[in-house]
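ENTRY TYPE: protein
CONTENTS: sequence, structure tokens:
***
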Amino acid sequence: MTRENHIATAEDFRQACAALPVERVVLPALGKAVLLRRPQPLWFLFHGQLPASLAARLQGSTTGISSPEDLKALADWMVPLLAEVFVQPRLSLHPGPDEIAPEWLDVRDANFIIRWAVGEITSDGRDLAPFRRESGAASASSDSPDLGMPAQRDAGSDGKHGPAD
């Protein structure tokens, strides 16, 4: 379609996503900078899960990995999130030149990136809990072992498809 009809094209949407802010973030375990982009809030909606640390705070409970299925569900959520967030280097299950595999990440760096991606911490690792409107929720430090099972969306969803499916 031509732009003369003022109808957005798929390329318009790709360019808008590519124009979202990118941040230089130093990973705590690696000690080197990467370029990351926070996912849009709809990313979490369409992927059906919140990170466990955030979900636990919202629900006032804790979540954890209690079975091999839980571990697989966590990995099935983490890899797409990390792939969405990494701008440079890119993340891939089958890395090519200038790409990294998810298993190359130190668990502290993966936890840091996830907490950064959901807005729990700043790029320099400062906890944003004081700025959230939560009553009595304890906050974890940026290097805490906060990884756990993602929380499923509300009842009525299978957690695999977004509302457009």
In short: The first strand starts at residue 23 and ends at 26. Strands lie at 23-26, 33-36, 49-50, 86-88, 90-91, 99-100, 151-152. The chain has one domain: 3-152.
